[in-house]
Amino acid sequence: MKVLIVGKGGREHAIAWKVKESDLVKEVFIVPGNVGMENLGTLVDISEEEIEELADFAEENNIDLTIIGPESVLALGVTNEFEKRGLKIFAPTKEAAKIESSKEFAKELMKKYGVPTGAYETFTNLDLAVKYVKEKGAPIVIKEDGLKAGKGVTVAFSIPEAVEALEIAFSIPNNKVVIEEYLDGFEFSIIALTNGETVIPLEIAQDHKRAYENDKGPNTGGMGVYSPVDKIDSNIVDETLEKILKPMAKGMKKDGIPFKGFLFGGIMLTKDGVKTIEFNARFGDPEAEGILPRLKSDFVKAILDLMEGKDVELEWDNRYTVAVVMASENYPKSLTIGSEIEIPKDLKSMVFHMGTKRNYEKIETNGGRVLSVVAYGDTLEKAKENAYTDVNKIKCKKLFFRNDIGSKMCYNNENK
Ligand code: AMP
Ligand code: GLY
Q1: Ligand 1 center to residue 116 CA distance, Å?
Q2: pLDDT at 416 (0 to 100)
């Protein structure tokens, strides 16, 4: 069969690599793809956001299955367009993808279906927002509504910090802000495959959202993950499924907006149990790079079986993975691109490209997050050691990375 993958980052590179392994797959097409994916399939020069062109391509080339990476493409309604034309796609409609693109929409659904999450209020006015923050006190969390690639969130530990975040948010006309209770605990990512009814969790990963070591600096899209996460045992996974993912899927179906695709929960394990930080409507990045190398089952078969309502059992590699993100200096504040990268050929790790471009024979940086270097290990320590050994062999003057991916087993204030 022929599979089309849409996107150009590390997540899509990992998805394409896994799809290519499937015995069912003869040909892989990637729109637009990146340098790292050149050997995995045919890179197609269409803008990923041209959804009608994407559907034309799928029709003309008899694509059997399309998998979408980025949330921005989902929000444009790619699934609506594909389904209108009877094309098979594993991704949510734009209505269902709103669980990511609108924090307010996600919060309302959670409230309606009793899914645990922090208390919140929505504001469209700076003075009222500042008053609320002063009443509630710090720490408190300020989230701009809309798609912000993980960057529109400020976890404020003081009132002046919260007020500053609000002033910045409301300097944008018509902005809407969700102010949320600070959740203290251990954060993890759970991604499930769902057909709108059955929810199949993948293995757990823990992301490292802050730019610098010891969780300092601004929030980013994620600077590295490890998987599995020992602290999140099967009881906690079950609790997350029963209290969060399944009620959400069931509720969305009931409301006529069934969610098909990768349902991603950012979850906080608090002293009162699991609570939802956010939902995403897609696979995580770099979660995909950490999780998919651990999946032993045929990924494409799992997706097809699930879409056809058949039973799916996934088999996992027991080894740990550590994925270290190498990002351009100044990420996420500003973007420097065009710096040459030398990746030795003999690395043991897998190198997934997040933001690179080809300049004749050379590879150059072309984004905020540039590479995701993923290694296995029989222990977390060993996976870490293997990943960092290779990270240190990659030469580029303009890249930085966190040295503590997989080292810090807690987030927020717990155990600090
Ligand atoms: P989000 O984009 O909603 O995932 O937020 C980015 C990051 O901010 C999360 O991964 C958490 O580390 C942190 N965060 C968001 N909301 C909260 C909250 N209510 N309490 C504590 N930390 C949060
Ligand atoms: N790494 C978190 C995300 O993909 O949103």
Answers
A1: 15
A2: 37
